[in-house]
Design a protein that fits this description.
With 381 residues, this protein is an alpha+beta fold. Helices cover 47% and strands 14% of the residues. The protein contains twelve helices and eight strands. The strands form two sheets. It has a four-stranded mixed beta sheet. Helix 5 runs antiparallel to helix 6. 46% of the residues are buried. The structure holds flavin-adenine dinucleotide (FAD).
Length: 381
């Protein structure tokens, strides 16, 4: 099998790198210090993403009818590797282009597609995803935020938690319970809710990852028209699962781990740490993990290119990316000590960035359960 990129693909990667070298400000490390939800990075994303959109690079993998170039998922994988390795200058907008947009395109009405997709593909939209609740994370179907249909509107009451980038978001991709009499997976729906709607209260949760990252969101008698429903009422589980398939491999996290690992290896050689056999072995196994994560990610891309149905390969790829992230984060802490926690210093705070990798989009244990059932055919219990 040929694992090499074509000449055109390599030329495209070089073009993206040149673009990044030109467009990322000299103080990018300082600017991106507080993570993708920070005021600085959100503002930067709204300047940067329209420039990507002008070149067709923001949504090249989307069909032309909805604002893309209809290019293959391979091109987008190259592009995403470069973005993630550079510290994700798209900021929170990576969520829109990776999974919110495709899910709106798949399940939305014509009106919803016209309203929401063009701003996403122009790089002007900020979204958040309201799935998790205080008592519903891994067991998402136990969520209790309720949306009651009253004539031509839904009235929403409940609470979400860990909602990323929510302070700056204009719209929430919200999973709610619309029926309490149906079996729990069948009583859920997705609503597209403007965050400016009366009755929504957002509170920030302090975190090590960065500023304005996590939030709690409270809904008290929040009224939205029935046109906010994405897909069919009570069939929101399928909509959410469609989005999660994209989310789980949405980011080639190994691209950043690999970049930091290269820095680590160079600096370890300079400091003479390579002579330490245990350290050198750890470097080697981290490199093997990065390579494995990359191959598993590309395998999922290949399945998309060939239009195959989603499989547990995306769960496996996610687990491998988490292992690579953690291995590199641990090495960074060992070599650089507390400096490894500071954005903009060598390794660019990789330890902090890697910490939540095994929790977001489903914990490692839950991903492994899915691999055990769907890939190995083991019984659910
Ligand atoms: C960086 C980051 C960003 C996030 N962004 C968002 C967001 O934008 N929107 C959103 O809705 N949520 C978001 N989340 C929340 C995330 O989806 C949840 O944290 C995750 O689903 C786990 O849920 P929980 O925190 O309730 O943990 P729990 O589900 O309570 O899990 C606690 C522990 O129990 C283990 N466990 C649970 N069930 C099983 C099982 N069946 N088998 C084995 N072990 C099990 C878990 O692995 C974990 O170790 C984000 C989280 C992180 C870390």
């Amino acid at each position: 099998m040929d694992f090499d990129w074509s000449d055109e693909d390599q030329a495209f990667r070089a073009e993206v790198r040149e673009f990044l070298a030109r467009e990322l400000p000299k103080d990018w490390a300082e600017l991106s210090r507080d993570g993708p939800g920070s005021d600085e990075q959100v503002a930067f994303s709204l300047r940067f993403c329209p420039k990507l959109a002008e070149r067709g690079w923001l949504t090249p993998h989307w069909p032309r009818e909805i604002g893309g170039l209809g290019e293959s998922a391979w091109r987008y994988a190259i592009f995403s590797e470069e973005m993630w390795a550079a510290g994700e200058p798209r900021g929170p907008q990576y969520m829109n282009v990776n999974w919110i947009g495709p899910t709106v395109a798949r399940f939305g009405t014509d009106e919803q597609a016209k309203r929401y997709l063009p701003p996403i593909s122009r790089g002007e939209a900020l979204w958040c995803q309201g799935f998790s609740e205080p008592n519903a994370g891994s067991d998402l179907a136990s969520l209790t935020t309720r949306a009651e249909l009253r004539s031509d509107e839904y009235v929403i009451n409940g609470q979400k938690v860990w909602t990323s980038y929510c302070k700056s978001a204009e719209t929430c991709f919200l999973l709610v319970r619309t029926s309490t009499s149906l079996p729990r997976h069948r009583g859920l729906s997705v609503l597209l809710v403007p965050m400016s709607t009366s009755g929504i209260v957002v509170r920030e949760i302090d975190t090590l990852i960065g500023s304005h990252y996590f939030h709690e969101v409270f809904f008290e008698n929040v009224r939205v028209p029935t046109t906010a429903l994405l897909g069919k009422e009570n069939e929101g589980w399928a909509v959410a699962m469609y989005a999660l398939q994209y989310e789980r491999v949405g980011l080639p996290r190994y691209a950043r781990s690999q970049r930091v690992l290269d820095e680590l290896a160079t600096d370890a050689a300079r400091r003479g740490r390579i002579a330490d056999t245990a350290f050198a072995d750890a470097l080697r196994s981290a490199r093997a993990l990065c390579a494995a994560a990359r191959l598993l990610y590309l395998r999922v891309v290949d399945q998309r290119v060939r239009d195959l149905p989603p499989t547990a390969d995306s769960n496996l790829a996610r687990v491998a990316m988490t292992m690579a992230d953690r291995a590199v984060g641990d090495l960074a802490l060992e070599l650089w000590g507390p400096d490894a926690l500071v954005y903009g210093s060598p390794g660019d705070a990789h330890f902090r960035a890697a910490l939540p990798a095994g929790i977001a989009t489903g914990t490692t244990e839950v991903q492994l359960n899915l691999v055990a059932q769907r890939w190995l055919g083991l019984p659910r219990d």
